Amino acid sequence: MPSRYLAFRFKYRLGYAAGLFLSIAGLALLMSDNQAAWHSPGPANHGHEQLPCSDCHREAEGSARQQIKANLKHQLGLRKHEAYFQFRPVSNAQCLACHDRPNDPHLVHRFNEPRFAETRAKLHPETCASCHVEHRGVRITLQNAEFCQSCHEDFSLKEDPISIPHQTLAQQQRWETCLGCHDYHGNHRMDVPTEVDNAIAPAIIGDYFNGAASPYPGPVIQKAKEKPDES
């Protein structure tokens, strides 16, 4: 066999091996937790900056080979459901592993009740990510306070204690005032103001949504866990 041909085969195999090695090394580096910023879709939301990816992104069952094989079967009609690849989708379970609050006035599971069917179709309040889309670099992504209208449009109190009755505020479409008096998740022990003029200004609420310090008075009574529960 000519030496030129042998040299060519050697270089070919060497190049193939080098390319394979660099590809595997590059993929391993890219998927490393230390290089999360390289493959993250955006900055972590406020309060999540120091969390490792694995706190929210849990590995899917099976090896990569098994996951690929299962998805090929799904594409060929030999399997009913597709398989998760590498990681399971982030769900309420991962959020509640740190943010489970039994005294939350707006527990997400409550919105699965039949009476909230119309609201679910509009806003999906039964999922944490409907308001808190991750990797946006803010605290809250649904920044339209009019979402209160979806459930409280006909709200009224017989003996309303505030200066402008809730029913009047609703009729006037002043939904921006809701969060000026009410902490949505009840994280603070606070007295609700009775004078609407004393409510927190919408602009300040907007800053809070974007990551500014909480404007709500009183101590925080429902804090996120530093380490999530395993799920």
UniProtKB/TrEMBL annotation:
Cofactor(s) demanded: heme c
Q: Which residues form the Tetrahaem cytochrome domain?
A: 46-153
Q: Note whether Methyltransferase occurs among the keywords.
A: no
* Segments crossing the lipid bilayer: 12-31
- GO molecular function: any one? metal ion binding
- Coiled-coil-forming residues are none
Q: Which keywords has UniProt assigned to this entry?
A: Electron transport, Heme, Iron, Membrane, Metal-binding, Transmembrane, Transmembrane helix, Transport
Its annotated compartments are: Cell envelope
InterPro entries to which the protein is assigned, alphabetical? Multihaem_cyt_sf, Tetrahaem_cytochrome
Cellular component GO terms, alphabetical = cell envelope
- Its protein name is Tetrahaem cytochrome domain-containing protein
* Organism of origin: Methylotuvimicrobium alcaliphilum (strain DSM 19304 / NCIMB 14124 / VKM B-2133 / 20Z) (Methylomicrobium alcaliphilum)
